[in-house]
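job 3f2a | input accepted
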Amino acid sequence: MNQQWTVVGLHKGGRGTLDGAHLAASLRGLPLANVSGWYSGDFRPDQLRAIATHAGPVASSALPALSVKAAQQQLVACGFLIEVTGQLDDATREALRYFQTGWCGVQELESNGELTARTRLALAFAARNNGSLGRKAHNFRYQEFRLDNKGHPRVRRRVGLAAQAYRDRFGPTTILRSGSSVEHNKAVGGAPDSRHLYPDHWDAIDVSPQDRPVADITALGMWTGIGHHAASGFVDHLDLRGGDPHAPNVFPDR
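job 3f2a | predicted structure (254 res):
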């Protein structure tokens, strides 16, 4: 008979210990049916009750300022340009939405701007790993997808996953450009309907090195728009405009 186990350990840190309500909230959604075996004796009764009942007591909807401040610091570590105020303000909620939109962990996050338990775990992982997009796009960071190469990170999960597939096949890859404002796109000579344009598209990346022929990218079966240098045929632009990735839209980009 197959069994699933969830191991729960508590480690005391500088900010104290987790109470039963927050412990229960962090376990919600895990395949935990009951508790068996032994424990070290370090758990408090409310923590044990939270584990044993799984759902546990409902945590307060108001997040402690310390939790919000930590999340803001983690967002800043990932390249989001927000103030660390300890308040879950509009700017922080917007940054959370775009963090969630780009997250490439094993499970995607709901893009609702809420500081959920899963979002907290993802933020902690990303900040601890230099802004990583997550385990399924582990070679890329949020900072590589800054709007106009200087603003807030703007990346979609499917772009991060496709970029990782490209990198897995062809080796180290630099993102030269991703999402662009109309002004920046015009300044760099982009097409008026460029797939780089934020907020309309932003599902494109320009890559370096530019040494792969169109046939190699088509064989990858991930990208639906492929731009290349007219003279050399080497690819410099990739996007997800829709259609069949095995029969992509191919065009000279220079």
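job 3f2a | The two ends are 60 Å apart (CA to CA).
job 3f2a | closed
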